[in-house]
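Field: sequence (string)
Field: structure_tokens (string)

Example rows 1 and 2, in order.
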Amino acid sequence: FKGDDTCEYLLSSGRFLGDKVWQPHSCMMHKYKNSEAKNCLLDKHIAFVGDSRIRQLFYSFIKLINPQVKEEGNKHGNIPFEDKSASIKVDFLWYPEVNGSMRQRIKSWTEAATAKPHIIVAGAATWSIKIHNGSNEALTQYKINITSIAPLLEKLAKSSDVYWVLQDPVYEDMLSESRKMITNEKIDAYNEAAVRILNSSSRNSKAKVKVFSVSKLIAQETIMKSSDGLHLPESSRETNAMILMNVYCNKILKPIDGSCCQPQPPLTLIQKLAFSFFTLSFIGYLIINLIHRNNYRKNKPCTDLENGEEKKPAVGAPAVSTLEMLLHSFCKLGLIMTYFYLCDRANLFMKENKFYTHSSFFIPIIYILVLGVFYTENTKETKVLNREQTDEWKGWMQLVILIYHISGASTFLPVYMHIRVLVAAYLFQTGYGHFSYFWIKGDFGVYRVCQVLFRLNFLVVVLCIVMDRPYQFYYFVPLVTVWFMIIYVTLALWPQIVQKKANGNCLWHLGLLLKLIGLLTCIFFLSYSQGAFEKIFSFWPLSKCFELNGNVYEWWFRWKLDRYVVFHGMLFAFIYLALQKRQVLSEGKGDPLFSSRVSNVLLFISIACFLTYSVWASSCKNKTDCNELHPSVSVVQILAFILIRNIPGYVRSVYSSFFAWFGKISLELFICQYHIWLAADTKGILVLIPGYPMLNIMVSTFIFVCVAHEISQITNDLAQVVVPKDNPTLLRRLLCAAAFFSALLLFSAIQDQPRH
């Protein structure tokens, strides 16, 4: 309601998440590393002017630039700091009282003869209270002095960033006898005077002294941990220094997870064209709808008053045309994309940082598992990994991943390792599902390839355009797309070996195994040859799809992390279908998959393997080391789960319709969460209803799920039109798609020129 000036919120309001994490009201704070701080403050001069409290803030600030700095030197004197590598100069100037000396120093900066600091942080009051024993005369003099300094600070604010730090409360019980006169009542009076006087002459001007009042809120929560009742504990000082860094640097470096003080990004050429297209679609659909309504009124059946029957017109109501269906889909998509843009590109809705607690992750997990078990139904078929079972599997995995993302559980390594298995299980299903289709159907036609590629990539391509993000940003879709093409090429290359051909001659099974061994060899080579991998994906235009931040390292890392699991899925499908063909498996309703003895042994081994992996993942100490082992061992828990889920006949014969419903829109849920459930490209949380976290989650989740479901419907509708079955029409559509992506590359190159 107060506008989109998140800097004001950052400097004045917020709350603690837990003990140490500060959450500004309405926006996200970036945690700056020393390299980022140096990059932002390159060739800058910063001045801290004031008493011992300002000196504390000075030290915390320079430790963001150089963590090795020690707090030593004359406490009641000036302290210089310089980082020659980045030409950064930071000075602390000892002026414990707002008096003539401080005024003279500030006045010298307003004169043209001396260089002005780029950032000025000032504040003082407790010394005045102490020296004058808290007298009212001292407060009156403080008002006179700050009134004389205010115009000078406002003048400096026209060319520099000027901050006046309000006085933090004290912990009166801990104060020494010499400081007992410094009371919170006196501090409030001094702060009130400073706020009233500063900017009094420039209320309508942009050149204002920024009042740093958030420190008071932080101190109220932490001052009891102070060593002397006056000075803040180190964690609070670090928070104040980080706020200062965010206020100044966010608009320069524009970190993704630092939404405070960031201006709304301007619309790109491609975004403008996209919004124009959606607007034209909306207008076109309205026109067609009005025409159809008019025709319907003309041909509306009339009632025969004599016998009460309707006289039907000679011409029936026209069927929905392809054009109307397309325009209707694009209208809905345009409205949805507008919501996406408003949520994560405009400064309309608030964003907050994530904060992990065990309860915020595990309680929702237990809740959805209970719901899932409650909605149990019988399956239509009882085969291993039947459609309902795989939808259920995708559904509960997707819900767990969503809870993992919104709770910030990636900071807890055991949870991270288990979530990595869930992502691997998705890719396992990719290998299993596509191999099974090609092996059984033998359909290597272009129509099948185009259908799969369209369904996987449609939403991501639209989001790349509307949200101005690279394709690789939505890393999971490039991953499954590339693996689908690898599976297709592996099986479609001569000789094409399918189940029908292999049934006639067992040697074809050996030929297929040789193909799979060749694929495994290529995967192994590329995983240990980063240079070769990067060369392949650095060729234009592939580089436009797989580059992130100017290189393909992120893509190589993502691909390498689950490099073997698709192969494992293909191999499992081959073995399972071979056993099924030879009637080794018993897949009847209620029957165990194998004989009772074999089933019991396999079930015991599966449970033992499942728990062993969980114990190993929970004992992980180093993420890098565990990620190195993950590609080879993740299949253990995946296979264990499949056997536990399918060996007992009863368990194989039922499924959760609740999880299966979510499984059918799992891809859309995974992609949509980036912008309309999470915020700042998944780094934060979207806040539609501030001040009510539970209500906010309920409302934003409801909208998020509805949008994902609607996009799934739109994608299916458009797939029927955009990817026709007859080859001549499909070829024309492919040429149109090639022209579209060529134009996209051209416009992308045009809009990238000013950025470079």
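Row 2 begins here:
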Amino acid sequence: YGAPGVEFMGLHEENNTVMQIHFIPDQCQLVTLLDDNSLHLWSLKQHSGASELQEEHRFTLKGPPGSPPSATQITAVLPHSSREVLYLGTESGNIFVVELLSFRVLEDRTITSEAVLQRVSDDYSNRRSCELVEALREHPKNPDQILIGYSRGLIVLWDLQNNKVTHHFLGSQQLENLYWQRDGSKFISCHYDGSYAQWPVSSENRQPEPLENLVPYGQLASGPSSVPGFSPLLSHHLLAPCLQHPTETVGEDHQCWEQTEHSLLQYAAARAYGVADCWHSESCSKVCPFQVLVMELNDEDAEHVVDHAEADLLQDQEGYRWKGHEKLKTRDGPVRFEAGFQPFVLVQCQPPAVVTSLALHSEWKLVAFGTSHGFGLFDHQQKRLVFVKCTLHPSDQLALEGPLSRVKSLKKSLRQSFRRIRRSRVSSRKRRGGSGSASEVQEANAKFDQDALQEMELAPVQRKIEARSAEDSFTGFVRTLYFADTFLRDSSRHSPSLWAGTNGGTVYAFCLRVPPAERRMDEPVRAEQAKEIQLMHRAPVVGILVLDGHSIPLPEPLEVAHDLSKSPDMQGSHQLLVVSEEQFKVFTLPKVSSKLKLKLTALEGCRVRKVTVANFGSCKTDDYSENDLAVLTNLGDIQIISLPFLKLQIRYPCIRKEDVSGIASCVFTKYGQGFYLISPSEFERFSLSTKWIVEPRCIVD
């Protein structure tokens, strides 16, 4: 498992939230717990040439007549390594034992809270100490012992053979979870206030030890935060979660990622800047979005100086004055980085505004970046700035205010929404036994969408469909950047080029001269502006694409270099496709004369939000495939548009138009699949292709 396309699916008959999933060791089985307190046993079975999850058993844990629901409300599940039983911790503090074969409770093996209390110190001998089992963990070296953690902080090591407590540990904070070290000599407890502790399992010591090497701080955040689950790894593994999808195109040695979160970069940037406590300081919000970090993959730890360059996008133009925050100061001297992606050069934009677009050409060793003030080109092989271009219009004063205050307010609303969701989960699970949890989360999600909509600064979403004035704010905001080897000066010679599209409907094209490999480090990369196109309707440019002589989009250079894509046709005439929020327009190259266009329906208020080229293969033969545009609009529908004739092929309703966060988070793959967030912690997957369907077709022997 873990390879692309290896997945299995099962669907509960009940329309209830899945609260927990646990694998049965070595059995191709798993157990699910729903918020109605029902347990379900699933097995992987072959059916119609594929393996699928089939439900084998289900049952709901019931207490004696007249007992409150909390008596049997399941809070923790432990599948035992014997593969014979499950241990179920409950809100009442009792632990029930379920036989897997029959999927029924073994009444005579229940571990009662009274039995536990008989063996603990007087400080914890009251009944409330054993309320709500928060965690159950089997000893990694001794299957006859399990660790039981109670919500109020009491932790006991229970002997299953002799039915007694062998060790007990008295925590002072509300417990969230427990994790064993692999040798079983110690375990880690996580607590509701963000703290954690390491406990040795010995007859002499019952006090926690300091955690010196696990993470850099004894508390992950200020105030309550439900420490997340973790294994004892180095800190960057704990603190850098990312949502990403692999592009299935560049081979296992050069795998490339479409990354929709920059959390991973924040860790590296924090090291480069020397931020002592990036994870709960204001520095964290400034580290990444306002700079460009160029990183390379290294299999080993390394210590080196991160080179630094500055790009002044205003170029000392008169009449402009930045009113935002100052740039961050870089760290002097070498910085040590763990194996993985390691920064080797940092480009700081001046003014230090949010980086709105990026493009990387791995063969030419160039990276282009854009902000609300302009764009620039950086040679990361020579570590030299090639050029910058200011795109500000005299009316763009709002772009000089500095986005930090708006970013802060958006982050604050997002943080508050996440905390509300987390609190609703904790309170519903611990206080009300799961009832109402789905509605709480739904309410929090609705507030999340509402907050996000109010705080979003992408003003074009709210504009009417009409020709825009050059006086509109943020016209210089760079929306898209694109590298292409095409015919820009004349029809006989092709050359590298960089294209940029702005919020005001302007497209800039620069001819590039990249020295050959043998002189790459000796001669500078040169750039000269060759074209400037102004769309009449001045709608924001969201995509730029060059089609080769066969009207096929230019392939990714890295794919061509590794024989994963055919080389483009450089004999016939190339064409330029410019996608704005309101229309698609094809131009001839190199003259840049208009050839054809497709307008979106103005009456519906429809606007392009995301666009990508998708390759659609035939489900009946491997000999046929075609490239089309996959387009997501602000109404949440997806349109497939043919290339190069711009004919609307089909339209699918996909995301609710009110779901602003879902539309904003949507990403496409190059084979016509996609993902979008349906809540802050869940994503939906869809496919537009009959060949690459969402339904998994995998077999487990």
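free_text_note (row 2): Residues 319 and 394 are 8 Å apart (CA to CA).
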